[in-house]
Amino acid sequence: MFDAHIHLNQYKDIDRQIEQWQQAGIEGVAAVSTDLRSSYETLSLKQRYPDFIFAAIGFHPEQPLPSSRDITEWENLLRRERHLISAIGEVGLPYYTLHEQQHDYLEHYIAFLDEMMCISKRESLPIILHAVHSHTPIAYDLLTRHHIPKAHFHWLKAAPSVVKQITDSGYYISVTPEACYRERDQDLIRHVPLKQLLTETDGPWPFSGPFQNKATSPIFIEDVIKKIAEVKGKDIMAVQKQCKQNMLALFEPSALNAAGSEENERTI
Ligand SMILES: [Zn+2]
Description:
Keywords: Hydrolase, Metal-binding. The protein is of the alpha/beta class. Helices cover 47% and strands 13% of the residues. Helix 4 runs parallel beside helix 5 and helix 9 packs across helix 10.
């Protein structure tokens, strides 16, 4: 089982936590960053757990735009540590905080996201997007304009017609533990082909329903997988296996090829 989107640098006592997660069957996580500082932190975690973490660096959109000084330093970090990096993220467009700002601010965020897409394209790195509701189509248009081959719409909330455009383009969409108790997310599962579905927690973000008052961890993924299996009428193990393949196809296609050949060898 994999967690395709977690803010790993925000966890305390990480060594003990990762050990517990691994014991519970978690094979890996995609650790995203929200600013320059967390980008450094994510990469240092990646160095400590190279086989458990896919590292993504970026600037979260639900906050003021980064300074040009931070962007320059971040680009230097990307160049220097490129070998440690699996994706650009999380980046995207503000939605929840936009009302607090002047509305023409959105244009600046669109321009910044455009810059991030150029980098994603130039570096051949997938891009992890926070772009929900009415802002999903804006991010989608940018992706297609830049011909970005690999993108992940994390915790997507969008109309079925937009979901269809995204999946028709081969991009990935993830669901969170919210799918276990919220009809809207179960509906999303119905609309996304299993081959493009990922599981995530966005931890340490807290959840309600059966997860009320529980500290969010990738261990919740087991319940998300069960819910996907139930909604799609599939076998739990088959869903788990497909979600793993999706995760590797997005973040580490070479591992997928290796896993594929290993399996072939075994069947021979
Ligand atoms: Zn996030």
